Amino acid sequence: MNTMKQTRLSERELAGYRQWLTELEEEMEEVPGLSAGLDGDLNGYFAPESPIGRQVYASFSNEELLEPLVATMEGWDGSPQPDRLLCVYRWYLEKRFGSLHRACWCARGRSRQQQAERRWPADWPERVDAKPFFQRCASRGLTLDEGTRAAVQAYCVAVSRRGQPPCESELPEQLRTLFARTGCTWRTGLELLGIPALSKAVRRHMRRYWAGAEG
User: Fold this and answer.
1) pTM of the entire structure?
2) Torsional sign, CA 39, 42, 45, 49
3) Residue 177 and which of 17, 27, 54, 202 are 20 to 30 A apart at CA?
4) Torsion of CA 157, 161, 165, 170, to 10 degrees
5) For 167-176, what is each residue's pLDDT tens digit?
6) Average pLDDT over the chain, rounded to whole?
């Protein structure tokens, strides 16, 4: 690595320092102290207030900084564990998000986004289908007339063509009532139709995610 005298790092040098962080993270199992702090020389390289550390810190996007924190969560309902991180990532998270508490809150949101990304890839409109919902109705002993079945199928076609999932307030009253009759919430009802049922924040993220995938 270059000396601390360098004022501006090249892309290659930045990549080298980030790789160094990855290697330090991998060493944590053998050197647990890396979670608490670094020795003097390493601290000088990576501290966010140092000439090099400031540039390494700035090279990370919000999502990249949250990634190791999200990885400390155990399942959907798990809590982020910042004490399990390499100390450098804690420094950077605290600087970027204002506090570790705020970073943990953002990590929970990022975890929900990742869950949605895995469950609802960009081609989800191709799989919108009323049949699973009709099967749910039949299992509950609910017989639907042809007009109701046609309305549900027409709604599926409309959502599939638009390529954007509705929010709760956009659901037709007829569909909302039908969901209730089958013991479904608006979320479970939409998901039976193959339509994502997302919170407002996650829906905003997924629209960008889908647009990027299509691009």
Assistant:
1) 0.76
2) negative
3) 202
4) -70
5) 999 999 999 9
6) 91
